[in-house]
Design the sequence.
């Protein structure tokens, strides 16, 4: 069951195969009589293609849901994510078996492969008022259930998808198609989010990786190991760090926009990002407070500037790794950044050895006179 991303307390809807020869679903369609009693008075909204979402939230934070769509075979699911991702979320999944018996179970979505989607596990809590139900009527499938939450759902990322194969031994097939929307459970309105959010996430990751993971470390290397070429090293250092900070700031703005859109629950990544940004701003402000070379305070400024910069780069590297993990980036991101880190570390070690060797030789030469 390879689905996609959803936000904090957000929804992942994986839905069944369409039957094109039958009239499409609309909110004007009446619910089957079997559902009318426990699921009356629901708000309704078409969400994607033939998929219709009926919902209501009570004061006790119980969400009542009926998902319906055209159906011939396959599975239907609705999942919830704590961090905006499919991996680590939980879902209620229903389908009609080959013998015509209905099935509905909770699933833990532990990964992107079918073997990592495990039945009868997860963090969803079913309400005691009504057992989950799956119905197929007039080539339409209805997945109805009630879930208890700690707080009312508001704007959530909803992922819609469908798989065509009937699950065997509770093993779900991979989806055939999917999309994601931002669904507002307070108003019933929705907007497309899939391509925009994915693009924004890539921009956020690429800008910050290049700025904090490539440019700014290079600028720091120039400042430490290229001082023989004075004043060229200073202008290179200042120029590289300025460009790196601007790109990093743009990446952070993209990250804030992404968070406002999907409300992803990634407190560690956000917290580290804010901390690194503050350190970066302090470095920029320090430029305007730099004492003259002959000032007795210059050595304290140098100590501050060097170590705050190193601290910022250290935590930026940690946050890049964390961002790659929580963002569900592919192996290309992991390999690329790993290679970049290796090159930087080898370069720093080599230059540090050469620097200490030169200092030692200079000290020996000075002592000989």
Sequence:
């Amino acid at each position: 069951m390879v689905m996609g991303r959803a936000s904090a307390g957000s929804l992942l809807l994986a839905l069944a195969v369409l039957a094109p020869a039958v009239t499409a679903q609309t909110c004007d369609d009446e619910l089957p009589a079997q559902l009318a009693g426990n699921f009356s008075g629901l708000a309704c909204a078409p969400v994607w293609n033939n998929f219709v979402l009926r919902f209501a939230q009570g004061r006790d934070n119980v969400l009542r849901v009926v998902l319906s769509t055209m159906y011939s075979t396959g599975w239907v699911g609705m999942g919830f994510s704590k961090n905006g991702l499919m991996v680590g979320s939980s879902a209620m999944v229903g389908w009609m078996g080959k013998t015509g018996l209905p099935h509905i179970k909770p699933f833990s979505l532990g990964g992107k492969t079918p073997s990592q989607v495990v039945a009868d596990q997860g963090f969803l809590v079913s309400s005691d008022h009504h057992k989950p139900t799956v119905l197929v009527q007039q080539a339409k499938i209805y997945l109805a259930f009630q879930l208890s939450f700690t707080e009312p759902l508001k704007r959530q990322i909803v992922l819609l998808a469908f798989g065509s194969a009937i699950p065997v031994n509770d093993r779900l097939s991979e989806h055939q198609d999917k999309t994601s929307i931002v669904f507002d459970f307070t108003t019933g309105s929705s907007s497309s989010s899939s391509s925009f959010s994915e693009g924004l996430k890539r921009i956020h990751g690429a800008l910050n990786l290049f700025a904090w993971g490539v440019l700014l470390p290079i600028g720091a290397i120039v400042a430490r190991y290229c001082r023989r070429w004075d004043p060229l090293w200073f202008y290179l250092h200042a120029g590289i760090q300025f460009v790196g900070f601007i790109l990093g700031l743009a990446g952070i703005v993209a990250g804030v926009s992404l968070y406002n859109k999907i409300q992803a629950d990634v407190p560690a990544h956000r917290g580290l990002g804010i901390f690194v940004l503050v350190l970066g701003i302090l470095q920029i402000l320090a430029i305007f407070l730099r004492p003259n070379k002959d000032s007795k305070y210059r050595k304290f400024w140098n100590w501050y500037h060097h170590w705050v910069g190193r601290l910022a780069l250290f935590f930026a590297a940690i946050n890049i790794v964390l961002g790659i993990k929580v963002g569900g980036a592919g192996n290309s991101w992991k390999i690329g950044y790993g290679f970049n880190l290796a090159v930087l570390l080898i370069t720093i070690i080599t230059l540090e050895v050469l620097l200490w060797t030169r200092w030692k030789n200079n000290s020996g030469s000075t002592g000989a006179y």
